[in-house]
Amino acid sequence: MDPPVGISSSITSSSQLEVVQEETVELSPPEISVSPKHHQYYEGEKVQLSCTAKIKEQVNGYRFFDKSGSVMSQVNVIGFWSSSLYVSVQKEKNETFSCEYWKWNASEEVRSQRSEEITLEVTEAPQKPSLSLNQALPRYTWGDHVTLVCSAPPGETNITEFQYFGDRQTIQAWKSPKDTNTTDMYNLNITAPKDTGNFMCAYIQFRSGRNVRSKKSDPVFIEPAGISWIRIMATGGAFFTINGLIFLITHYYFLPKVSQRNDCHQLFPVRSHSQYTPIQPK
Asked: Which residue among 96, 123, 150 closes a domain?
């Protein structure tokens, strides 16, 4: 027996309503946090941003946004309910971040609502030091040494460390807590390409209960002497030239030769004219 028309209509309407509700369901916004937490940050400090989804379903990825709304990072994950991003805060009055997550529904990406924004107050880093070279030369050869002299601005205190940044290496120079000197000297032995190129320095200062790195100094340049490279190239070229001649001479005297007698080809090596007797044809 067919159901009454009114009952059928009500069932159909209820099913359609459920489908519409499933399509319009939005994913709840995640929560964004920062570590370490400080009242104020210095430019150049690194912080960890964490984005956490407050759902029990599997998450497929996260996005982090800057204050302009541009995507800073996109991370694909499987089954993780949180993701992290490490950033170095810049010299701005405020740094603002937010995040979202997404999950796949069939082949469609379903995005969550955007998290609340988190704002970090950023202030200027300690002033940059000056860097100079003691025993400065126009060019340096292997085995030379030069002293890097890094000087913090006058009046700076609580300096715990100096750092030197080369194109190919980073050097740390620790200070004793009793050492109140604001200038550090590092003796650099020039023995490899990593000891040449641009160098900058910075100092670490204890501020606001933590170590804070200053701005980097202007660079100095340690230039290797070109004659060293010319000498190496010349030596290498002579080496290959001599070895090439040896190879040609050896190739000429040691390779087999072919002798034709009585329409019979016979092969024998000719290493020394007095060592071997030619084979006579039978």
From this structure: 123
Beta strand residue intervals within 11-60, DSSP E: 31-35, 41-42, 46-52
pTM over 0.85: no
* pLDDT, position 81: 81
How high is the mean pLDDT in each 10-residue block of the chain (282 residues)? 47 46 70 96 95 88 94 86 91 88 88 95 96 92 95 94 96 85 94 96 95 97 70 48 61 48 39 40 44
Question: What CATH number should be reported for the domain holding residue 74?
Answer: 2.60.40.10
| Coil vs helix vs strand at 272 | coil
Domain presence at residue 210: yes
Output the pLDDT for position 281.
Answer: 46
Is the domain of 143 the same as that of 164? yes
Check whether the bond before 219 is cis (ω within 30° of 0).
Answer: no
Q: Which domain holds residue 137?
A: 130-224
Burial code (b: 16+ CB inside 10 Å, e: under 16) for 22-56 equals: eeeeebebbebebeeeeeebbbbbebebbbbbeee
Bridge partners for 51 per DSSP: 32, 83
How far is it, in rounded angstroms, from Cα 237 to Cα 269? 32
pLDDT of residue 265: 39
| Interatomic CA distance for residues 31 and 62, integer angstroms | 12
Q: Are 70 and 151 members of one domain? A: no
Q: Are residues 134 and 161 in the same domain?
A: yes
Residue spans of alpha helices (H) in the chain: 5-24, 226-254
Instruction: From residue 165, give the alpha-carbon distance in Å to each of 95, 200, 211, 262.
Output: 27, 5, 18, 80
What is the distance between the alpha carbons of residues 52 and 29, in angstroms, rounded to a whole number? Answer: 9
Is-contact 222 196, C-beta < 8 A? Answer: yes
